[in-house]
Each structure stands twice: as C-alpha cells, then as structure tokens.
Design a protein that fits this description.
- This protein has 130 residues and is α+β, with helices and mostly antiparallel strands.
- It has one domain: RRM (RNA recognition motif) domain (Alpha-Beta Plaits, 2-Layer Sandwich), CATH 3.30.70.330.
- The protein is built from four helices and five strands, in the order H-E-H-E-E-H-E-E-H.
- The chain has helices at residues 20-28, 43-54, 77-85, 119-129; strands at 30-35, 60-66, 69-74, 89-91, 94-100.
- Strands 2-3-1-5-4 form a five-stranded antiparallel β-sheet.
Length: 130
C-alpha cells in the first residue's frame, strides 16, 4: 500500500467585496425612529398606520429593533425625503422622532431631528393651517 501525499501550494486568494456600494446605498435610505413614550404600543398597528400615512411609492420595510424603536428602510430617496420634510409625525398621540441610520453606531446613540410646534406663534400658525 503506498502513501499518498497531497501537495498544496499557497494560492493567492483575492477577496472581492461585492455589494459594498449596495450596502452604503441601503444605509443612506434608512431612518431610525423612536416613539417618544415609555408605555408599550401595539407594534402591528403602528407599522400599518405609518405605512398608510406615508404611502411611499416605492415601498418601505419597517423593523422593530427595541422598545418603541424602529428601522425604516426605504427603496427610493424621494420617499425618505418626503417623510423627513413632512414632519412631525405621531402615533397614538406620541411623537415619532426620526434620525438617519449610522452604520458605525448604535441606534440608541442616533441624533434625532424633528420639528415640533411650540409656543404661542406656532399655535397661531397651526390654527391657520388646519
């Protein structure tokens, strides 16, 4: 019986990072949202209501990532831009704070940006709009 010996030579393996640009595009089209309340909300009702209110032409995927925290993944920049421009949003009388997804940070560290009417001038302005 003869012994067989495998001869292996080191091969140069070249790694190709496919889809990296696609991942960057997905991060740019994402938002993180937090409902400004400590009480629990009905997650399914929230997701359904937000999709109906926003009505994105190209769709949005919503994922629950923690207590009253959500990730919104849009499929087109115009849908994301419209949602940001049409703020403030709320659900069940609780404000929805929105911030850009940051691939290097935790969702709990995100800086939220939103506009809230406050003060007498805003109240007068809102009463004219409504």
């Amino acid at each position: 019986m003869s012994k067989m010996r495998a001869i292996t030579e080191p091969e140069n393996i070249e790694w190709i990072e496919e889809g990296e640009e696609e991942d960057d595009a997905r991060v740019e089209l994402g938002l993180v949202g937090r409902l400004w309340t400590n009480r629990n909300v009905n997650i399914n009702a929230f997701m359904s209501t937000i999709k109906n209110a926003w009505q994105p032409k190209h769709g949005v995927e919503i994922s629950n990532i923690g207590k009253n925290m959500f990730v919104f993944q849009f499929h087109h920049w115009r849908d994301k831009h419209r949602v940001i421009e049409d703020q403030p949003w709320h659900f069940d009388w609780h404000a929805l704070l929105l911030g850009d997804v940051d691939s290097s940070g935790k969702p709990s560290d995100i800086q939220y940006y939103t506009t809230f009417p406050c003060g007498l001038e805003s109240t007068i302005y809102l009463s004219r709009v409504v």
